[in-house]
Amino acid sequence: MSQAKGRRKGRPSSCSSGRCATTPSKSGGGRKPSSRKKGERGGVKIQPKRQSPRRQATAPKGAVAEVRLQKWLAEQGVCSRREGEKIILEKRVSINGSIVHELGVKVAPKDEVRVDGRIIQQRRDASVVVMFHKPRGLICTKSDPQGRRTIYELLRTPWPRLISVGRLDLNSEGLLLLTTDGALAHGLMHPSREVPRTYRVKVRGVITKEQLQQLTTEGVELEDGPTGPLDVKLDQLTGGNSWVTMTLKEGRNREIRRIFDSLKLTVARLLRVSYGGVELGELPAGQWRTCTPDEWRALKQASEGSLIGADEGEEGDAAEASAQEGAARDDTPAAEA
Question: What is the pTM of this model?
Answer without folding.
Answer: 0.59
